[in-house]
Amino acid sequence: MKEELVKLAQKGDNEAFYTLVSKESEKLYNIAYHYFKNEADALEAIQETTCRAFIKLRKLKEPQFFSTWITRIMINYCIDEQKRKKKFIHIDESISGDSNITETNIDGILLETAVSGLEPKYKKVIILKYFQDMSIQEISKVLQCPEGTVKTWTYRALNQLRTLLNKESDFNV
């Protein structure tokens, strides 16, 4: 069914394209939000990704990989935009203004800060595996690299996170 929608969209059916993007929108939003840490930039990323996908849709050779293809467009956009803006991690105003910050919120902020400090290739793998719940095989397709590479990057990223988080806990003691 999805492949049929892709083929219809490639022939100019805007409703089919809208249906495809609607099915992917939550996943795309989550990826963008993990990169930008705010709703406005995440929504802008979805809009830009949708526009790029619409323009390039006819170049998609294998319709069954639409989901992987649009996810890759999103990740590339997020990385490019971060480089362009040279953004740094920041705490959402709604959390920082809250007088009832819980230990869970602090742990989440520490984890997000640690993830944002990883090398880009490691950050991609962690976001896709643990925040998007993708398998190693799916990540391999999205990043266009061997599964062994994804496993290595995951292992190294987790070691770096462990180190970063241990330094944070030593600092807080």
Task: Return the string of H and E elements.
Answer: HHHHHHHHH
Radius of gyration, taken over Cα atoms and rounded to an integer in Å? 18 Å
Helicity, in percent? Answer: over 70%
CATH superfamily of the largest domain: RNA polymerase sigma factor, region 2, helix turn helix motif
Named CATH architecture of the largest domain: Orthogonal Bundle
Strand content: under 5%
Structure classification? mainly alpha
Number of domains: 2
Q: Tell me about the biggest sheet?
A: none
Q: Give the N-terminus to C-terminus distance in angstroms.
A: 55 Å
How would you summarize the topology of this molecule?
Blueprint (H helix, E strand, L loop, with lengths): L1 H9 L3 H23 L2 H18 L9 H20 L7 H4 L6 H14 L3 H12 L4 H8 L3 H26 L1
Question: Can you offer a commentary on this structure?
Answer:
The protein is mainly alpha-helical and 173 residues long. The protein has two domains: 1-87, Rna Polymerase Sigma Factor, Chain: A (Orthogonal Bundle); 102-173, Winged helix-like DNA-binding domain superfamily/Winged helix DNA-binding domain (Arc Repressor Mutant, subunit A, Orthogonal Bundle). The chain has nine helices and no strands. The protein has helices at residues 2-10, 14-36, 39-56, 66-85, 93-96, 103-116, 120-131, 136-143, 147-172. Helix 4 (66-85) packs across helix 8. It is globular. The N and C termini lie far apart (55 Å). Mean pLDDT is 82; it is low at 87-101.
